[in-house]
Design a protein that fits this description.
- There is one protein chain.
- This protein is of the alpha/beta class.
- The protein is built from 7 helices and 6 strands.
- The protein has helices at about 20-30, 75-80, 95-100, 100-110, 140-150, 165-185, 190-205; strands spanning about 5-15, 45-50, 60-65, 85-90, 125-130, 155.
- It has a 6-stranded mixed sheet, with helices on both faces.
- Strand 2 (about 45-50) and strand 3 (about 60-65) form a beta hairpin.
- The longest helix is centred in the last third of the chain and has 18 residues, at about 165-185.
- The protein starts with a strand and ends in a 6-residue tail after the last helix.
- Keywords: GTP-binding, Nucleotide-binding.
- One of its GO terms (molecular function) is GTPase activity.
- InterPro entries: P-loop_NTPase (IPR027417), Rab (IPR050227), Small_GTPase (IPR001806).
- Pfam families: Ras.
Length: about 210
């Protein structure tokens, strides 16, 4: 068992069909479950995954908010999050429109209140999904990297289908959170304990999140 467990919220955003749910499912199943049939997320789906920090006896419990990409839900998405910590934005390398939408999703995320009353997440990452479809790719790595740089995000390319870049993306976010906690003066920001315990308890009461 880990000595210290830090409980955090991670928001996943992007256009419909970019593969957000597939990425989350591959992460929580450790590459064993790729959804072959597309099923649109309505509202927000919650998932829980423990991420062990390499070379330590600590871990980060990630409560993942897989958010639907329909305009219908845009105005209410942030009400589900309740001060999250980490941000993962996703686009499809076969869809230039989905990359253009990243700025809008980032703007929506920045309009929310983040953990500890902050205006920004502890860490944010832009993931270019579906790189396995090389013959249909329309967005180059340089374009994605430039967008990430403009928004102050870390950039990763990958494929949910091939389980490439998936673990790397979520692990990077967890490690950034862990590093931030260790840099803080008292070791733990208040939100990591009191704020997220209630959210974690409610997620653990749902068998689908275990």
């Amino acid at each position: 068992m880990p000595v210290n467990i830090f409980r955090v919220k991670t928001v996943v955003l992007g256009d419909p069909g970019v593969g957000k749910t597939a990425l989350v499912q591959m992460f929580i199943s450790e590459g064993r479950e790729f959804a072959k049939n597309y099923s649109m997320t309505l509202g927000v789906d919650l998932h829980l995954k423990r991420c062990h920090i390499p070379n330590t006896s600590d871990a980060v419990d990630m409560l993942i908010y897989d958010c639907g990409g329909l305009d219908l839900y845009l105005d209410c998405l942030s009400q589900f999050w309740d001060q999250p910590d980490l941000l993962l934005l996703v686009y499809d390398v076969c869809s230039p429109t989905s990359l253009q939408s990243v700025a809008d999703w980032h703007r929506l995320a920045m309009s929310a209140e983040w953990a500890g009353g902050g205006a920004r997440p502890v860490a944010g990452l832009l993931l270019a999904n579906k790189t396995d479809l090389a013959g249909r790719r329309l967005v180059g790595a340089d374009e994605g990297s430039q967008m990430a740089g403009q928004l102050g995000l870390h950039y990763v390319e990958g494929s949910a289908k091939e389980n490439q870049g998936v673990q790397e993306a979520f692990t990077w976010l967890a490690q950034q959170l862990y590093s931030e906690v260790n840099r803080s003066q008292d070791g733990v920001r208040p939100s990591y304990n009191s704020l997220h315990k209630s959210a974690l308890r409610s997620s653990l009461s749902n068998p689908s999140l275990k």
